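Mods, move this if it's the wrong board.
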Amino acid sequence: MSISNEGEIMSEVGPINRPYMAKNQAHIDYKDFLYTKEERLRRDQTSWTFVQGVLAPVQFVVFLVSLGLVINFFITGSGQTVALFSVVLKTIILYVIMITGSIWEKVVFGKYLFAKPFFWEDVFSMLVLFLHSIYLFSLIIPSITVVEQLSIALAAYVAYLINALQFLIKFRTASLEAKSLAGEVS
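Not the wrong board. Structure tokens:
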């Protein structure tokens, strides 16, 4: 056994990872975390984090109301205008949250989209945007029926729910990491 330049205890087969580190250790390895130390600092300091924190629940509430209106139309056949408008409102909020989210991602990670920690969420967001945009486009095509338009909206909403779940998982991961870091450096 020997000690490497980094202070690791080396055996014939490689480094020995000590499972019990001191609670106040000075060095924390961020390579397995969602954010590096610098990214976490930028995330916490930018006002765009607050903007995303407000817009995300607003979008979800608008989604729930709109979903209820769309389902009501499919069940009762009434409320067509309000159901159609509610999807337009949801789509506008989606566009706003995508633009502000891209700015947030640029501030935190240095890229407007597809930063490594949020790559798959951004990929799926493109599908969500595409489906919502198809819905808007369907509104100006006279041959597309209301049922077809609202069916497109439902497909967009399923994609949105999956994407929202992806982001909730990332939010939970970031929260657990923050708690882990607070425990290691306190």
